[in-house]
Amino acid sequence: MKISDAKVFVGGPGKNYVTLKIMTDQGVYGLGDATLNNRETLPAAYLQDYLIPNLIGMDPRNSEDIWQFFYRGAYFRRGPISMAAFGAIDMALWDIKGKLANMPLYQLFGGKSRDGAMVYAHSTGVDLPDLMDSVESYVEQGYKAVRVQCGIPGMPTASYAVPEEKNAGGDYITDFSGIRPKTEIWDTDRYMRFMPGALAEIRDRFGPDLKILHDVHHRLLPREAAELAKAVEPVGLYWLEDPTPAEDQDAIRLIRQHSTTPLAIGEVFNSIWECNKLIENELIDFIRIAVTYAGGITHAKRVVDLAGQHHVRTGFHGAPSHSPISMAAQHHLNAWAPNFGIQEYLVLGTPECDALFPSEHKMRDGLFYVSEAPGLGVDFDETEAKRYEYKPGSHPVVRLEDGTLWNY
Ligand SMILES: [Mg+2]
Fold it and tell me: Which Pfam families match (predicted)?
């Protein structure tokens, strides 16, 4: 059996999904997602210029050797662009493997550890009452967990994942359009004064059962993060996410020394080498890697297995930049992983997205159920894909009020 061809598509409804389709000489094909948000053309070029020419003629069943060929075979290893490109190939090869076995992917990992896997939604508000309305709407829909992000009184601009106008609530997705980034202004003092009380009010309003998550998005210094993690202990957060920039992992130790608030880290990590010490030293509670830019299923599964030995649960990244293909890969891992925690989940199920990526996967009452279709259980409609083209975008940049550049 041989890989006969592979194609890359860039585009989609509202997002520049990078979709890889690998064809074989036996007619079975596999799909992968190489979307790297706001840098989408780069993994696409890596695939087209370097990886696909090497893939042609390889046996698609040897997914491990192909992964090693691209990882060890590249002198300059790791990094989000190359790992996203390898990740798409790896997903597509697992998709082919599942189709050949006529089994849904989770069966190849070891079967199901649960039927429905818990997901969390994004709640957001310009202020606390607006945020409460958003949380309420998710609770009414049966969600068991929500991530809460709130406008900060006195902050000169909307901060991370917060809309500029009321009632954006459940449908709000940050606008990344335009190649030149928008600027957000950040003030740590205002945030630190406001956020612990706001989280406490959300807990009071919704009671003890709702799982509440909050994303600091790398904005704090280590000492400030320790202060926040300690201050919110009475709230009983499900997790506090990315309190400090991911490069300095010793910062996590400082936070850990001062607080028992669970920590979720790692959505920007690309390999096991960026999180193995955090996991082995049991400094985090949830690992946030994504199948997309952590080298696909083969590599992500190694991280999950290591995490499982150290009481660290999964909480895969699930921002809207992940296409239904990589989300399906994560949902299959979630169905299997003995150390599954939770899955970040945004409803991408617009008619346009469903038409481009048809599947029978279902979310119901805050739990995700994978379909029994062979492989990833997601298809890709190439005719629909012709409707879309690449649109440049950029993440905002963050500055302090005096103009100093800060962490987005
Ligand atoms: Mg995050």
Answer: MR_MLE_C, MR_MLE_N
Same domain, 79 and 137: no
Assess whether 187 and 254 both reside in one domain.
yes
Residues with Cβ–ion distance below 5 A, ligand 1: 215
Cα–Cα distance between 121 and 160 in angstroms, integer? 16
pLDDT value of residue 92 = 98
Same domain, 26 and 115: no
Task: Classify burial at 360, counting beta carbons within 10 Å of its beta carbon; exposed 0-12, middle 13-18, buried 19 or more.
Answer: exposed
The pLDDT-based confidence of 157 (bands split at 50, 70, 90) is confident
Active-site annotation, residues: 160, 217
Q: Does some domain include residue 358?
A: yes
73 and 128 share a domain? no
Helix residue spans in 73-118 (DSSP H)? 80-101, 105-109
How many angstroms separate the alpha carbon of residue 2 from the centre of ligand 1? 39
Which of 84, 104, 124 terminates a domain? The answer is 104
Domain that holds residue 37: 3-104
Residue 2: predicted pLDDT: 98
How many percent of the chain have pLDDT more than 70? Answer: 99
Between the CA of 160 and the centroid of ligand 1 the distance, in Å, is 10
Final residue before a domain boundary, out of 40, 72, 104: 104
- Ligand 1 mean position, distance from CA 242 (Å): 7
Q: What are 400's two structure tokens? A: 């302090």
Query: Domain with 141 in it: what CATH number?
Result: 3.20.20.120
Q: How far is CA 278 from the centre of its chain?
A: 19
Tens digit of each residue's pLDDT (9 = 90 or more) over 58-69: 999 999 999 999
Q: With 80 as the cut, is the pLDDT of residue 389 above it?
A: yes
Q: How confident is the model at residue 347 (pLDDT cuts 50, 70, 90)?
A: confident
Q: How far is the CA of 171 from the centre of ligand 1 (A)?
A: 17
Residue 367 corresponds to which amino acid? L
Torsion of CA 270, 275, 276, 282, to 10 degrees: -160
Task: Please report, for the domain that includes residue 97, its CATH number.
Answer: 3.30.390.10
